Known about the structure:
six-stranded mixed sheet, globular, Nuclear Transport Factor 2, Chain: A
Amino acid sequence: MTHANAELIDRFYQAFQRQDAEAMAACYAADVAFSDPVFRGLKGRDAGDMWRMLCARAKQFSLTYEVLEADEQQGRARWVATYLFSQTGNMVENHIEARFRFADGKIIEHRDYFDLWRWSRQALGTKGLLMGWLAPVQNAIRKQAMAGLRAWQADR
């Protein structure tokens, strides 16, 4: 029998495959904490808005995933997102490991782990290959992503 939190993770990624950000956000607790190498320390509505923005902007998007484990308190999944990075027109295949914490049938913490330099080599091309491993470049990626989220929120 599959644990209810494994089903919650499955529901989250099925919604992501459909680019249904509202259904994804519905899997989160109101005060969820989200973090990944680009979007660090998002809380509550900002986490849902990040998925809303990414789904709304996604081009040539596909996603595969595997729920690795889940119990009453925590879970893990592996997923691969393939999409067109619109700023450069480059295709990206991002391999991610996700870790979750749960309470009351909702995700209360979601942390995604991936190699930001690997991502930058694909998304940014030569610039990412040559400089994507540098902290200032990675910080610039983070700053631009957060500015994009804030601008998207302001336009809603």
